[in-house]
Amino acid sequence: MSYSETALDLLEKGQLEDFKKQYALALRHDDDDTLYGLAEELYSLGFVNQSKRIYEKLLEKYPDEDELRTHLADILIGEDKTDEALLLLNEIKPDSDAYVQSLMVAADLYQTQELFEVSEQKLIRALELAPEETVIRFALAELYFTMREFAKAIPLYLGIIKDGFLNYSAVNIVERIGVAYANEGKFEQAVGYLEQVHSGEMTPDVKFELGFTYLQLGETKKAITTLSELQDTDPQYTSLYPYLGHAYEEENQNEDALKVLQEGLAVDEFNEKLWLQSAKIALKLNDEELAETYLNHGRELDPEDLEIAIQLSNLLIKQERWQDNIDLVSKYLDQDNLDPQLYWNLAVSYDALENLDQAQKAYESAQPFFMDQPDFLKPAVYFFRKVGQLELAERLLARYLELVPEDDEMVLLQDDFHQLGY
Question: Which residues form a coiled coil (predicted)?
């Protein structure tokens, strides 16, 4: 046996001190081809420093062997010595047999620096030079997957399957295609691939994507089954809870939906959207007190969340808590893009409290946004009539009757306006 073979045998047995001695002997006595093989084996086993030393020794002896440069550059990238790695790679010229490999190593370097476009350029050039190389197609597909450019990744993954690989470099290609299609919104294609992933290879991410895809296709029972299985195996997978809750809601199983969302809040209590979703379900179950509690929790987490504020304001209006609603909405009036629903709610509250000046200002702010909503127009007509804004009231009434021409009460009101000359 060569010293290299003995060293590897000792390493396999866990005899590290004896390995170090044989490794030193290998560096002094083994031929260069044997040492090159030892370097590859040591790198694959995670003994990077020992591998690096051999490559450096060989490069000193064979300065024209660019393949050694690519191996060293790869190691230097792992050591975060990117400048040194680039110097080595830049020494490799386009006519070198190792040029394509150098492009791939450079692409990896730029990807670690999140310079994705530069990495893409390197891999595209490598693929142009070696279009038959699956490893390059895979690297480019994975880069696009990381960049969330799924439409570009899909044909590359399909090409890898055509090359005869369902798994490549410990990655399930079928899974990748399914997830990519799901993220592109092509759910029918996605489910066809995701369902092919064997249960033993079904990671939490893939199971989530499958459950999400079922939900998008309206297959809510399958979504519930899949996402419930994910919850059982990985209850800390917080993304599942909003979708599982929604699936139950679609099945009109609101009590189950609320239970799931409450379980989600137990593991993700700082998710204000989860509090909001739980509040909406509580309202469906007519538990206004619980809904208000959840909405207030959500506002504590994100006071600027207008959707939560609107839901809470709507609840206060329903309960005729006029001053509480005014106090709530007033906290948002200085926002540049205040949701007009809050102006509407504010107008209703001020009107109920006979503060007509403030009610008029709020109605005027809300009115341009709700010209297609009869529920707004009808009370607005009566309000502006009450405060003497008869021309505006008649204009809103005309618009209301375009939308609800069968409302006899409002038809009679329009006749009254006509008699007054409006």
Answer: none
Q: Distance of CA 22 to CAs 11, 44, 57, 131, Å? A: 10, 18, 17, 42
Write the CB contacts of 326 (distance below 8 Å, at least 6 apart in sequence).
346, 349, 350, 353
End-to-end Cα separation, the chain, in angstroms:
108
Exposure string for 128-153, b = 16+ CB within 10 A, e = fewer:
eebeebbebbbbbbbbbbebebbeeb
SS3 168: strand
Q: Where would I find the beta strands (DSSP E) of 146-286?
A: 167-168, 171-172
Could you read off the pLDDT of 385-416 as tens digits, one per residue? 999 999 999 999 999 999 999 999 999 999 88
pLDDT digits (tens, 9 = 90+) for 121-176: 999 999 999 999 999 999 999 999 999 999 999 999 999 999 999 999 999 999 99
Look at residue 198 and give its three-state secondary structure.
Answer: coil
How far is residue 140's CA from residue 124's CA, in Å, rounded to a whole number? Answer: 7
- Supply 9's token pair: 């045998």
Q: What gap in Å lies between CA 295 and CA 319, rounded to an integer?
A: 15
* Token pair listed for 102: 């150098």
* 8 Å CB contact between 75 and 51: yes
Place of tokens 């249960």: 199
* pLDDT at 254 > cutoff 90: yes
**Which residues contact residue 362 at a Cβ distance below 8 angstroms, ignoring those fewer than 6 apart?**
343, 344, 346, 347, 350
Q: What angle do CA 297, 307, 217 make, to 5 degrees?
A: 105
What is the DSSP code (8-state) at residue 341? H
pLDDT digits (tens, 9 = 90+) for 61-74: 999 899 999 999 99
**287 phi and psi, to 5 degrees?**
-105, 80
pTM: 0.77
Q: What is the largest CA-CA distance in the chain?
A: 114
The DSSP secondary-structure symbol of 165 reads -
DSSP letter at 367? G
